[in-house]
Write a structure and sequence with these properties.
Residues 199-243 form the Flagellar basal-body/hook protein C-terminal domain. By secondary structure, the protein is of the alpha+beta class. Helices cover 26% and strands 31% of the residues. It has a three-stranded antiparallel sheet with strand order 6-5-12, with no helix packed on it. The radius of gyration is 26 Å and the shape is elongated.
Length: 247
Amino acid sequence: MDRMIYTAASGAARVLEQQAVISNNLANIGTTGFREQMSIYRSVPLLSEAGMPTRVSTVASTPGSDMGQGVMVETGKALDAAISGQGWFSVWTPQGEAYTRAGDFGVNEQGQLVTRQGLPVLSEDGVPMEIPERGAVTFSGDGRVTVLGAGDRPNDLQVIGRLKLVNPTEDELVRGDDGLFRMRTPQPVQADPQVRIIPGFIEKSNVNAAEAMVGMIANARKFEMQMKVIQDAGTNAERANSILSAG
């Protein structure tokens, strides 16, 4: 009976862990550039001291993230940009350089180009991108940032730098608790001149809401089944005790 309860409780715990991942994905459906987190659990046979299979437990793992591109939405905003195909924007965090697909930028009080979370966006030189005061900012497809001052003529357009766009392989990246991705090794990634952006667009989350909801419902039913097994184990134990007492 103890083994029965242990097995069912282990399965229920794994279901709850996966449910938490799916819930987080659903909560970030509206998050620009969000990458769906993957979570699976698999069966693991448990062996007796004699090496014979006795029961089956489960373990959960988070193999990575779905790197498929989300839907592109046109905003028309000068400070919005979406990466076309593969690639990442580089930002600076208290833990060092990190990477994101979210291109809904703004300008902070220090005149730096920043993400929605206030993190400085890096130039290809690895320093925060500085935006001149009262300048009309535009992005080009190769990541160049140009500014036209108030009262300037179109011919006075100035290139102030280029965004640091990188394209590391997926297995080199690790998702952080803040939703940003970082390299497994401490070395920052070099800028990739082949990465292209689409000005005036943002990339939405790549989470499929319908699939996530189906996954949540399926997990809820699996959890109920595990709880039913635990309940039946308790009932069987009570019956066994009553039989022994009667004897």
